[in-house]
Design goal:
CATH architecture of chain A: Up-down Bundle
Radius of gyration of chain B: 18 Å
Number of helices of chain A: 15
Helix content of chain B: over 70%
Shape of chain A: globular
Number of helices of chain B: 7
Number of strands of chain A: 2
Strand order of the largest sheet of chain A: 1-2
Shape of chain B: elongated
CATH class of chain A: Mainly Alpha
Strand content of chain A: under 5%
Oligomer: heterodimer
Distance between the termini of chain A: 18 Å
Largest sheet of chain A: 2 strands, antiparallel
Largest interface: A-B, 54 and 44 residues
Order of helices and strands of chain B: HHHHHHH
CATH superfamily of chain A: Cytochrome c oxidase-like, subunit I domain
Largest sheet of chain B: none
Helix content of chain A: 55-70%
């Protein structure tokens, strides 16, 4: 029987949600600024720290590590307690993890502005930050796996498999890719060289997308979708099969970033084939999600969060189809080094990652705070702005990417390039204008959400929630996350178990 | 009927839902016109103005290349149209629509694509940014018609219609991006613009 003096540690979850929202606004604001710089280069005001080369990694690191990882830590801590029926293991360590992570993201961001960089994409932070990240990641792992180790339900719910894979694989990628020889406080050199360095970097880069931006957020989906829909996952068996297929397949796909390079051709072909195979587990998850949500259509009337989840699934389907397609060598030769890639990344980042996170926050915050969402109307306006911004962004980048691909590959009668790089870039300005408008629309929507959620949290502590009294502690089901009290104080036991 | 489809689509949706065979027949006759419009406009535009990708010199193609491009374009539209109807029919059970007559679905999607097909007149001047600028509002309009019309024709609650429409939007985005990918692969293999690959 449960000791009812125990309560879930939701304070740290609330704080991580707040940080995540702040990083979302900051990261997207920087994104909008650099989108404007591509049209008006003078916006760097002659300052090195405002140049595109320094702000761009600030944008990607702020979004991935600030917004994304804070959201993943928040949702992992929230859901692992409820799927294990125990409070967090070592809650003080969870708080260290929470604040330590924000310090690293903030200081790391400032170091990027100062010009400290390893020059590895998505791994630009220099060695002191890499070590700090490793320590904090181990803290995250101890809290998460410690909670699972002390669980009162024997099966481990599928969302925890995804969060677990996120923690283990990102640790492996981060350590291996960042092995370097420091020469000073702010400079180090990778221990790999040449093509080997490129292969390791894109093994890291692509799997950061795979296990953080896909796998981690799938953990979020598998817990919060059935909770929001008030339905069990359509096929639990399919979710477990797709987890193992996803985990096995993703790790091979990285070299598709290196098509037509000095990397051996068989490595490129292998990556292409594994990328195509990856479509199967990705779409298995999408179908599982769509079938689960299809039974919960009545919730759409009252729950703005559901709309975000529905659209997130549609964009997940798009992004996970487009990626393998762009990994085909004959398509990649046109699409690589063009804005088509940027559009693809943002159909995933805005359409999938941001939408699923927004939907989750709209669900989680009112429940944690024990009060209704401050404004459902604002959330609905946010939804349409997010959709419009995402659509406009990817359509503009499709147009820009196709044009760039064709122009760069055009040759004249004697085999010389028809267009110079400058000519091609100058012709991109109209598309960049559309992209800027799209980014501003999306950013305004995010600011509306920030206002809405901070007003919901304003002046309140999280409600105290105890683990439910589990009669059959050994054979508790893994098919449905355990219910917790709703914001009206009811037990929530009407949720099917 | 063309004016009714563009000006009062709500009424047309209700007539289709009611099974008005005269309206369904008239809308279906428009399908042929709608599918032919984009490739014909594209043919005329590429013949007289060339593809304008943003740089100074337009790309002109010989007659064979233009025939192949227009032929594949028409094929892709026909394939996309029929597959969308079949997928909607397949999905209808999941979203509570039961067995909806296929001719109703064909009529529904003809109304939905009407703004896009009319806006494809922008292909007459195949400057990519000009086309993007004209087609974006048309895409938004078509999406609105899908979200609005589908629950009426399927006779399901708007919320279920929203879910099914979103699934179809997912499919349509995938179909469109497939078209981009197939085009890029065909260009690489020598069909269409001459590339240095």
């Amino acid at each position: 029987m449960t000791d009812f003096r125990e309560i879930y540690h939701d304070g740290v979850v609330k704080r991580l949600v707040q940080f995540s929202i702040i990083w979302a606004v900051v990261g997207m604001l920087v994104g909008v600024w650099i989108a404007a710089e591509l049209i008006w280069p003078g916006l760097d005001l002659g300052q090195f720290w405002l140049s595109f080369g320094r702000l761009r990694p600030l944008h990607t690191n702020g979004i991935i590590f600030g917004f994304g990882v804070s959201a993943l830590m928040a949702t992992a801590f929230y859901s692992v307690q409820r799927t294990s029926n125990v409070p967090l293991f070592m809650p003080r360590l969870a708080w260290i993890c929470c604040y330590g992570w924000q310090v690293v993201v903030l200081a790391g961001g400032l170091s990027l502005l100062a010009g400290w960089t390893s020059t590895k994409e998505y791994a630009e932070l220099e060695w002191p930050f890499d070590i700090a990240i490793t320590i904090l990641w181990v803290c995250f792992a101890v809290v998460f796996f410690g909670t699972i180790a002390t669980r009162r339900i024997k099966p481990i719910y599928v969302s925890n498999w995804f969060y677990g894979a996120l923690i283990i694989v990102i640790a492996m990628l981060h350590i291996v890719n960042n092995l370097a020889l420091p020469v000073s406080l702010n400079k180090s050199y990778s221990i790999y060289a040449g093509a080997q360095d490129a292969v390791v970097q894109w093994w890291y880069g692509h799997n950061a997308v795979g296990f953080l931006l896909t796998g981690g957020f799938l953990g979020m989906l598998y817990y919060f979708l059935p909770k929001q829909a008030n339905q069990p996952i359509w096929s639990y068996r399919l979710s477990v099969i797709s987890f193992w297929a996803f985990t096995y397949t993703y790790i091979w796909a990285g070299p598709h970033h290196l098509h037509y390079s000095s990397v051996p051709e068989w490595v490129q072909s292998l990556a292409m084939v594994m990328s195509l195979i990856l479509l199967a587990p990705s779409w298995a998850t999408m179908i599982n999600g769509i079938m689960t949500v299809s039974k919960a259509w009545r919730k759409l009337r009252v729950d703005p969060a559901m709309k975000f989840i529905v659209l997130a699934l549609a964009f997940y389907g798009l992004a996970t189809f487009e990626g393998p397609m762009m990994a085909i060598r004959s398509v990649n030769i046109v699409s690589h080094f063009t804005d088509w890639t940027i559009g693809h990344v943002h159909s995933g980042a805005l359409g999938w990652n941001a939408m699923i996170t927004y939907g989750t926050f709209y669900f989680m915050v009112p429940r944690m705070m024990g009060r209704e969402l401050y404004s459902v109307r604002l959330a609905n306006i946010h939804f349409w702005m997010a959709l419009a911004g995402t659509m406009l962004y990817i359509i503009a980048m499709w147009g820009a990417g196709i044009s760039q691909g064709l122009l760069w590959l055009s040759v004249d009668g004697i085999g010389e390039l028809s267009y110079s790089f400058n000519d091609v870039m100058a012709s991109m300005v109209p598309y960049y204008g559309l992209r800027l408008i799209a980014g501003i629309i999306f950013l305004i929507g995010t600011i509306l959400m920030a206002y809405n959620l901070f007003r919901t949290m304003w002046g309140r502590h999280t409600v105290s929630v105890s683990p439910p009294d589990i009669v059959d502690e050994i054979h508790g089901t893994a098919h449905m996350p355990e219910p917790e009290p709703d914001f009206d104080g009811s037990t929530g036991r009407e949720v099917p178990a | 009927m063309l004016v009714a489809v563009l000006h009062a689509p709500g009424t047309v949706f209700k007539e289709i839902a009611a099974g008005n065979t005269r309206v369904i027949g008239a809308v279906q006759r428009l399908t042929f016109l709608f599918i032919l419009m984009p490739p014909i406009f594209s043919w005329i535009g590429s013949t007289y103005f060339g593809w304008r990708l943003g740089s100074n010199d337009p790309l002109y193609f010989d007659t064979t290349a233009r025939v192949i491009i227009s032929f594949f374009y028409a094929d892709a539209l026909i394939l996309g149209y029929i597959s969308t109807v079949l997928i909607a029919r397949w999905m209808s059970k999941t979203y509570g629509g039961g067995k909806v007559a296929t001719e109703k679905l064909f009529a529904l999607f003809t109304v939905v694509v009407a703004p896009l097909c009319v806006a494809s007149a922008s292909h007459l001047y195949p400057q990519v940014f000009f086309n993007v600028l004209i087609l974006i509002p048309a895409v938004m309009w078509s999406m609105t018609l899908l979200y609005r019309g589908l629950p009426i024709v399927m006779n399901i609650p708007p919320e279920r219609g929203m879910l099914m429409s979103s699934s179809l939007v997912g499919w349509l985005l995938v179909a469109f991006v497939s078209l981009l990918g197939i085009s890029a692969a065909l260009w690489t293999y020598g069909f269409g613009p001459s590339l240095g690959v």
